[in-house]
UniProtKB/TrEMBL annotation:
Protein source organism: Hymenobacter nitidus
Known pathway: Amino-acid biosynthesis; L-histidine biosynthesis; L-histidine from 5-phospho-alpha-D-ribose 1-diphosphate: step 1/9
Cofactor(s) the record lists: Mg(2+)
Name of the protein: ATP phosphoribosyltransferase
Record-listed E.C. numbers: 2.4.2.17
Catalytic activity, as annotated: 1-(5-phospho-beta-D-ribosyl)-ATP + diphosphate = 5-phospho-alpha-D-ribose 1-diphosphate + ATP
Included stretch of the parent chain: 1 to 210 of 283
Encoding gene per record: hisG
């Protein structure tokens, strides 16, 4: 039996469940249960907060997980990725108030930037030779500039309408993300075999969708 952690409720949940079903795996799911067992494949599914998934897979509490690369890389476990899944595509971008001028990332030198992604942003800015003050906040990052809490933000963007609605404009793409399958790095031979079967089915599903 192999154990897969997916997001309990959020932007990854439906596509994760659909992918498992399209792999021909059947299971009962109720919104109250935090785990379920497949009926026709030796798979147990755990439903968790997405932020907890990388750590659980790293520690072996779960063998496999489905999570956004943004969360995986921010958690510090990029090496757990085994398969790109092609959904939940988004980008992590820097944005400033629309009324502010902007030439290049060097303009952010010494500025206050609010973000939920201090690790990814810190590495990006270091690579650009820019020193800024990062303020880590866990949600509603987009409101920070308009209430004077920060000069800029770095947050997830997909359509861009949230930035627009908060008077912000995107000035740099810091990181591109999509959902990925992750795996513990010390799987038993038996679990490794189950992982390979799952990857084979996921690749077939993606080919059939194209
Ligand atoms: O409760 P839990 O901790 O499990 O969930 P969560 O609230 O932390 O995450 P959730 O469900 O919002 O997102 C899960 C994953 O979906 C993220 O980690 C990304 O990998 C991916 N994803 C894809 C997104 C978006 N698109 C997205 N648009 N995550 C967040 N957003 C936010 C964005 O920050 C903005 O505030 O949605 C808002 C709207 O975006 P626009 O640009 O379309 O307006
Ligand atoms: Zn989360």
């Amino acid at each position: 039996m192999i154990r897969l952690a997916i997001q309990k409720s959020g932007r990854l949940s439906e596509d994760s469940l659909n992918l498992i079903r399209e792999c021909g795996i059947s299971f009962l799911s109720s919104s109250y249960k935090l785990k379920t067992e497949a009926t026709n494949f030796p798979l147990e599914i755990l439903f968790l907060r997405d932020d907890d998934i990388p750590g659980y897979v790293q520690d072996g509490v779960a063998d496999l997980g489905i999570v956004g690369q943004n969360v995986l890389v921010e958690a510090g476990f990029p090496d757990l990725e085994v398969e790109k899944l092609g959904f939940s595509k988004c980008r992590l971008s820097l944005a400033i108030l629309r009324s502010e001028g902007y030439n290049s990332v060097a303009d952010l030198q010494g500025k206050n930037i609010a973000t939920s992604y201090p690790q990814i942003l810190g590495r990006y800015l270091a690579g650009e030779g820019v020193q800024a003050n990062l303020h880590t906040i866990s949600g509603s990052v987009e409101i920070a500039p308009s209430i004077g809490l920060a000069d800029a933000i770095c947050d997830i963007v997909s359509s861009g309408s949230t930035l627009l609605g908060n008077g912000l404009r995107e000035v740099e793409t810091v990181f591109r993300s999509e959902a990925v399958l992750i795996a513990n790095q010390n799987l038993s031979a038996e679990k490794q075999e189950l992982l390979e079967q799952l990857q084979f089915r996921m690749q077939s599903v993606r080919r059939a969708r194209r």
